[in-house]
Amino acid sequence: MSGKQLIYGPTFEEMLHPDRVDPEIRAKALKAAKDDPLSPWNLYNITWRNPEGRIYYVVLPKELTQVDANIVVLYRKDFPTRSHKVGATYSVCLEHQLTGDITPGEHTLVWPSTGNYGIGGAYVGPRMGFDSLVLLPELMSKERFEQIEWFGARYEKTPGCESNVKEIYDRANELRKDPKNRIMNQFEEFGNYRFHYHCTGNSCIEVAEELNSKNVGNGRIAAFVSAMGSAGTIAAAERIKHEYDESRTVGVEPIQCPTMYWNGYGGHDIQGIGDKHVTWIHNVFNMDAIMCIDDIESKKGLQLLTEEPGWEVLANRYNVPEESIRELNEIMGISGVCNVLAAIKTAKFYGLRDHESIFTIATDTMDRYHSVMKQLDDTYGAMDEMEAAVRMGSIFHGAKLDWISEGTQHVKQNWFNLKYYTWVEQQGKSIEELDAQRAPEYWIAQQERAHEIDAMLREARGF
What we know:
Blueprint lengths: L1 E2 L2 E2 L4 H5 L6 H13 L21 E3 L2 H4 L4 E6 L9 H14 L9 E5 L3 H12 L3 E7 L4 H9 L3 E5 L6 H11 L5 E3 L6 H24 L9 E5 L8 H8 L4 E7 L4 H4 L26 E5 L1 H12 L1 H9 L5 H10 L2 H17 L6 E6 L7 H11 L4 H12 L7 E3 L2 H18 L4 H6 L3 H22 L2
Parallel strand pairs: 4-12, 5-6, 5-8, 6-7, 9-10, 9-12, 10-11
Antiparallel strand pairs: 1-2, 3-4, 11-13
């Protein structure tokens, strides 16, 4: 697994189809998942599939969504960090290692983040032999900082909350002055984009085909819905559109800081989705709409799905199947609820029917948010069954068609122009490369580089 002090893991193709991993290595990885969660063999457990090869997904009960369309949620609570962002951090780290930019024992990897990417970096960096430092806003949940330390990394707290990405950039640029530091910036690193284009996008397509064989949906994907964050996850929609050209790509932002929707400012608490800038790796010309979701509704919705008064109401008043209640309790975090609420709005806005399917992602789980739920109780009082029923009616069943902006050509140009201030004026990108992003060929080249990376990795590890 190592040579010349370098540790390697799976190719993009092996993350998509782990049955293609050498059987001996696959067995070691599955054993490590149970017995040694900090073992580097767990890099081979970065995949959307379970040990039996089934992709992790649920089709939400219509008793919850009250829309005709099928809402399909991919989740991966059993990723090594309980979040799919570990796939992005591994891909970024791997590419830098293969190109000789980073060497264990010589370089410190700096992971700018507002949450799960930083936790992913805290996991991947030490597993691949690197000293790792995570930059995270000080108002993130305490569980995030605890997990970073447990995985063997250090952290620095930057000022502000989820929305304060600029402060993270400023600190990263200071650290960049030390030649031993290497900045693994998810907002500009195309390894992040490639993981989701190849692994997440193709996994969605395979699930659509599987559901069609079960008479759920029509074998196609009508829309892919995702909060942007670093704009890694939403790259899956580009792969989906290449397969189904009628599919819509719907981005999601917080009402409290609607950057693309309204050139906005402010702070919000949908931890993990970022804002206040358009990321370098975001192909905004692939977007069909932006929808904004309230952060309080996302948190209250999570509490409804993960606490006993909510379970009672879901089961007894709304007839949500108990199996679905158990699943939702295990797979949802704040941003996952945000994505589901946006998917419900998408179904209503486009008038999608019962043979059509919307795909979205549950990005992490409740284990990151117990302290946030405590703050919710302190602010609004504990949720009882009456309050749970109100939340079901107002948050899920009552999803409104406000805060929606369709991606006309004029609007897409506005979204694209927002990149200039962050990336050219602040972060030193050239105007020539920014203009190159207008062409589809720019993005196709980034997608196809996954095959080149896979070839480099196979040669480096010798199998």
